[in-house]
Design a protein that fits this description.
332 residues; mainly beta; five-stranded antiparallel sheet
Length: 332
């Protein structure tokens, strides 16, 4: 049993407060220790003035301690706070949606989700220092109307070369669309050049134009007498061409002459009357010494390399000698 100091004969009841004076009172501070008894006599909660408590148990920190409790003693060591939930210590803390303000320093190696809009303005050179797999140098390029300086384009999947200038030394094959601004000589080095279904303006290239024109001729001779009817000769044509006109000349005398021309392949040679190319417009001299036809109504004017032409006299009067000439344009 615990006895009351003010009444030693009375038992101390639950929740009574008793005081213990400093027996020696060496500092003459007259401090006393007030003790609140709780739970009968087996548990005592004490408030000890300004004295130091050692080995006390069950002291509530939220209500039993005033002031700031140091970190070393299990407190926060701070007098004010912001945010909620857990106290943050310096080693590897996990922060939930913190507002960091403007840190004086830091390493962002493992940070993710940083928006590019959060980076302040910088130059292309500064951006290049952040990249490890860039190619080329100079300024950053965006896809609308960039100016590239000596780029190596590789093999583009597509593109329009309308405004490209310079030489075409790297071209190998393909189609070239006619361009009214094309100037200079167009040559082929190491590759065959073919102009298919194309009209070439060669007004200023006289030598080249002359090479495209040729004449296929045969002489009909009666040996001093009037030319007789029948087959008078043949020609093998070694190139593709188109007939432009037919001319007949009788240099010795005036008279009449009708000639038919037959054409067939070498495999089917010799041609026959069934292979005529003149339709109803046969080359004809009528009481004259010459004739020429550039209309060639109904004619088959296309000749393929290797074709055989046979000239047959259908009729002749007076004329002893004549030349039949086909003017053709080579197809290249």
């Amino acid at each position: 049993m615990v006895l009351r100091e003010d009444n030693p004969t009375a038992a101390i009841a639950d929740a009574d407060v008793i005081s213990f004076a400093d027996a020696s009172d060496s500092d003459n501070d007259k401090n006393t220790t007030a003790v609140l008894l709780s739970g009968y006599s087996d548990a005592i909660t004490a408030t000890i003035g300004i004295k130091t408590l050692t080995n006390c148990l069950g002291l509530p920190l939220t209500t039993g301690v005033t002031g700031t409790l140091p970190v070393a003693n299990g407190g926060t060591g701070v007098t004010s706070s912001t945010g909620t939930v857990a106290v943050v210590l310096s080693n590897s803390p996990t922060l939930v949606t913190p507002a960091l303000g403007t840190p004086a320093s830091g390493v962002m190696t493992n940070m993710t989700g940083l928006p590019i809009t959060g980076i302040t303005s910088s130059t292309s050179a500064e951006l290049a220092t952040l990249l490890s797999d860039e190619t080329g140098s100079g300024l950053a390029v965006f896809n609308t109307s960039p100016t590239l300086v000596t780029p190596a384009l590789g093999t583009p999947a597509s593109g329009v070369a309308t405004n490209l200038t310079g030489t075409a030394s790297g071209l190998t094959s393909g189609n070239v669309t006619t361009n009214a601004n094309l100037t200079g000589e167009v040559t082929s080095v190491g590759n065959a050049a073919t102009l298919a279904n194309t009209v070439v303006d060669v007004d200023n290239i006289v030598a080249a134009s002359n090479l495209l024109i040729s004449d296929l001729e045969i002489i009909l001779d009666g040996g001093g007498s009037a030319i007789t009817t029948g087959i008078k000769g043949s020609i093998v044509v070694d190139f593709d061409c188109t007939i432009n006109n037919v001319t007949m000349i009788a240099p010795k005398e005036s008279g009449s002459l009708v000639v038919d021309i037959w054409k067939d392949t070498f495999a089917n040679a010799p041609p026959t009357v069934a292979d005529t190319i003149t339709a109803a417009a046969l080359p004809t001299i009528t009481t004259a010494q010459k004739s020429q036809d550039a209309t060639l109504t109904g004619w088959t004017t296309t000749i393929t390399a290797g074709d055989i032409l046979v000239f047959n006299v259908n009729s002749a009067t007076t004329i002893t000698n004549a030349t039949v000439s086909l003017k053709v344009t080579k197809v290249i």
